[in-house]
Amino acid sequence: MKILVVGTGAREHALVRALSLDPAVTELHAAPGNPGIGLLARLHAVDQLDGAAVAELAGRVGADLVVVGPEAPLVAGVADAVRAAGIAAFGPSAAAAQLEGSKAFAKEVMAAAGVPTAEPRVATTVDAAAAGLDTFGPPYVVKDDGLAAGKGVVVTNDRAEALAHAADCLAKPGGTVVIEEYLDGPEISLFVLSDGVDAVPLVPAQDFKRVRDGDEGPNTGGMGAYSPLPWAPHNLVEDVMNRVARPTIAEMARRGTPFAGVLYVGLAMTSKGVRVVEFNARFGDPETQVVLPRMATPLAGVLYAAATGTLGALPPLEWLDAAAVTIVVASGGYPGTVRSGDPITGIEDAEAVPGVHVLHAGTALRQNSAADDDDAIDGAHLVAAGGRVLSVVGVGSNLAAARAAAYAGVEQIELPYSHHRNDIAASAADGPLV
Ligand code: AMP
Ligand code: GLY
Regarding the domain delimited by 2-90, which CATH topology (the fold level of the hierarchy) does it fall under? Predict the structure, then answer.
């Protein structure tokens, strides 16, 4: 099978890596990819938001399957363009990707499907937003309705800050905000594959969204993740499938916009039971980096089945009896204004640690004629070129071993001014592996 992966992040590097380990995969392409992905796949300088260009590339390289990683191309209709060209695409249509593209739409679908979530107030004026804040009281949760790359949500006890965020979102053209009830309790992420009718869960993971240890500081795209979750109830996945995923997929089909791809269910485990915090229409980053290495079933056939309406015929997925932890190495300044161009070294040394592999996100190659050392790729040096730069993944027989490996890998990486969290999977690693 020839596969084209669309995207540039560590999530796409994780997908490409898993696909490269699948004997059924004969050729891998990426658009536009990154330098790490370039070690495993042929890179193509194509705008990932341009559906016609992606479909043309897929046809030109003879792709049997196109896997669309990020939300922006999905919302822009890239999967639709590929399917219209007669090529199988893993990823929902633009209409179905509105489950992520509009938080107000997601709330409407959840209400129709009876899915437990925080009670919302959708506001299009500052007065309505203020009334919403006072309905629920602190802590206040204010969400930009549209895509905001992980920066659209403010959770605060400060009413003025909450209202200021609402006003900022409302100032955009067509600005809409969702104000909602605060959900307490640990968060988990569950990825559910669907072909529009059937649904198959992967294993749950936990993401660490705040930038600093102890869940301090602003929200980020995600600073680390681990799987499995030794503390989660044994019936968690079945409960989420029955109360959240299957009703949502049935409701999307009933509306004539079937959801095929991966439904990312972000949940809070509250004292009143599970509640949906968010839906995304794609794999999570960095959770994908810890879910895929645990999967024993080769990935390509699974994604192909979801893309072609044949998930029901797939044998049950098999999982390794292993744990995985990933640590995100971020540029100085992230999640604010980030530095770029600083040199990255030590990836080979990190990967020499047993159980460790390193995935690229915000990296670039800078041509350098003197680049003949171990860290050079084709005579060029690797530099930071984004907020989240690398995902260092450790795999082991239990969380403690996976965590130790991941941090031993991180220690080998040198990137001036970079930072990472030190407490990823720390408390979970003390518990039993389930
Ligand atoms: P979202 O983009 O909707 O996932 O929100 C980003 C993050 O904000 C979530 O992962 C939570 O940590 C936090 N958050 C979102 N909604 C709520 C809520 N209703 N109660 C508490 N925290 C929330
Ligand atoms: N890890 C959060 C996300 O992918 O949205």
Answer: Rossmann fold (3.40.50)
User: Is the Cβ atom of 153 under 6 angstroms away from ligand 1?
Assistant: yes
Residue spans per domain, the chain = 2-90, 121-180, 185-313, 323-430
Other C-beta atoms lying within 10 Å of the C-beta of residue 404: 16
**Nearest alpha-carbon partner for 356 in 8, 17, 22:** 17
Q: Distance from first CA to last CA of the chain, Å, rounded?
A: 34
Is CATH 3.40.30.10 correct for 185-313?
Answer: no
For the Cβ of 224 lying below 6 angstroms from any atom of ligand 2, the answer is no
> Distance, CA 183 to ligand 1 centroid (Å)?
8
Q: Over its length of 434 residues, how does the chain's per-residue pLDDT go in tens digits?
A: 999 999 999 999 999 999 999 999 999 999 999 999 999 999 999 999 999 999 999 999 999 999 999 999 999 999 999 999 999 999 999 999 999 999 889 999 999 999 999 988 999 999 989 889 989 999 999 999 887 766 688 999 999 999 999 999 988 888 889 999 999 999 999 999 999 999 999 999 999 999 999 999 988 999 999 999 999 999 999 999 999 999 999 999 999 999 999 999 999 999 989 999 999 999 999 999 999 999 999 999 999 999 999 999 999 999 999 999 999 999 999 999 999 999 999 999 999 999 999 999 999 999 865 555 666 676 689 999 999 999 999 999 999 999 999 999 999 999 999 999 999 999 998 865 44
> What are the residues facing 266 on neighbouring strands?
189, 278
Assign domain 323-430 to its CATH architecture: Alpha-Beta Complex (3.90)
**Can you give the pTM of this predicted structure?**
0.94
- Ligand 2 in contact with 284 (CB < 6 A)? yes
Q: Tell me which fold the domain 121-180 belongs to.
A: Dna Ligase; domain 1 (3.30.1490)
Q: Which residues contact 174 (CB under 8 A, 6 or more apart)?
A: none
Residues 6+ apart with CB under 8 A from 254: none
